[in-house]
Amino acid sequence: MMVHHCSTSRSIGRGSRCDARLGLHPADHFGGRWAGVGGWGCDLNTLVGYQIVLAKPIAGFVQGGVRKSGYEGCESDRVLVFVDNIGVRCKDLARQQLGALPTGYLFARNNLGDMKLCVEGDLFAVSQTN
After folding, report:
1. pTM score, whole prediction
2. Three-state secondary structure readout of 8-57
3. Does 105 have pLDDT greater than 60?
């Protein structure tokens, strides 16, 4: 898994190097939240201590052994697949119907033992697929 190296003190601060990597602009920050494409983003106050692991479009998902294109949110045991075929397993329920391929922002701590995914303002728990 590719890790973006951002210092913990400037992981997602206004104008940080991580913001530039994620395509964010300093004006995208609003009182502890960060606005992604399409509106308000995830509450960064709940992600203190986490690091950004990746930011990539979600290309599809695998559920019940069947791979489908697109994004329809998270369900228990569904594997979300990013455009580079890296996947994360959903632990929470998050119902979303989005037209375009949304970007997923993966945050982790405790050596990837505790991971959360932010997609279009919804934050939910995920785990590694293996």
Report:
1. 0.69
2. HHHCCCCCCHHHHHCCCCHHHEECCEECECCECCCEHHHHCCCEEEEEEE
3. yes
